[in-house]
Amino acid sequence: MSLVIQGGRVVDPSQKVDGFLDLRVEEGTVVEVGEGLSVPDGAEVYDAGGKVVAPGLIDIHVHLREPGHEYKETVASGTRAAAKGGFTAVACMANTSPVNDCRSVTEHILSEAERHGRARVYPIGAVSLGMEGKSLSNIGDMVAAGAVAISDDGLPVSNAELMRRALLYTQHYDIPVIQHAEDLDLSGGGVMHEGEWSTRLGLPGIPGSAEDVMVARDLLLAADTQGRYHVAHLSTGRSLDLVREAKARGLGVTCEVTPHHLLLTDEEVAKSGFSTDCKMKPPLRSETDRQRLLEGLVDGTIDAIASDHAPHHPDEKDESFSCAPFGIVGLETTLSLCLDRLVRPGILTLSRLIDLLSWGPARALGLPGGTLAVGSLADITLIDLDATLTIDRDTFVSRSRNTPFAGWELQGRAVATFLAGELVS
Ligand SMILES: [Zn+2]
Fold first, then answer.
1. Which terminus of the chain has fewer Cβ atoms in its 10 Å neighbourhood, N or C?
2. From the centroid of its chain, how far is CA 371?
3. Is position 47 annotated as part of the catalytic site?
4. Is 120 helix (H, G, I), strand (E, B) or coil?
5. Which class is 2-52+381-423 in CATH?
């Protein structure tokens, strides 16, 4: 199968390319990039005039909920949501039921992806057996089956000795340990960021230090072990400073941030009238934290934007603010939110945003893709910068609806998603 994508503006940060070029794909691989490419006999032609042609976007923090919580999401529905949002690959967290802590669960997820997936699925194995935080999971087995990293996300690795051993052991496989950085004693029963708004609203708070002390501890362990360490959903200015300093010292440290921590603050809990769609972990932070995260995007400290797509059934979120579960969906909103609220106002260049959504995440986890270099996977996202949309949760193809962005009017969105050269959305 042969495909030529013609006349688009190719933006590929991995090669520092930004220009009007054609792209030829054979058998799922990019084989030629250049001006005015000839079209082989029988090749399909896709007119990308007026569109941006980007490497397929990669979301390295997604909860697909399968096995065990298929009423929230499945591999099939989650990857459909990914493709619709412009993502050609997702890395999925291990807090399923059963937990992905051994080869059979990793294999199950991959076989579901093989049969029903509209995007590549890269399973992340658990750090600890059953995510109980006691003993290491079967890391070698899971890596052999296809796991690309380990994380107990949903929960932190609280035990410092376990984290130290994880950072040592994963070096045999050259994979990162991804930490949901939260000191559970400090976060306690908190339900939102601890600050002026939690005081005014009378809700128990989660201080920024709950994240900072865990990141600080882990960076010491990463320095001692020379392990690969990745901070999931980094949310505070001080954690960002710690990562920036560790990178300057040459540690193998990476981090991601979410769109909601870049665009919303703790005030949103009040403004939304205690909407449980503003309840997530880490919580929406202060405006100061938010501004610091934006600086980290620009200066390169932050490696990736990841959605932390965390589907929950409406009945679960239809609870009081204190009782509802933490988390929101993001696969179908991330790209448009970032285009409209980060690129359009000039905070980020288009190239930097695409970097944060493709090459950056690919490098953080060591995944294929994230580039349109000749010989790479023909995973390609076409973006229309002028197309508008209003976020309408009733049109989501995800099984869940929990978003704080409903009704937002945005400009810029994915209009076509190619997986291995085939149009999947
Ligand atoms: Zn988490």
1. N
2. 17
3. no
4. strand
5. mainly beta
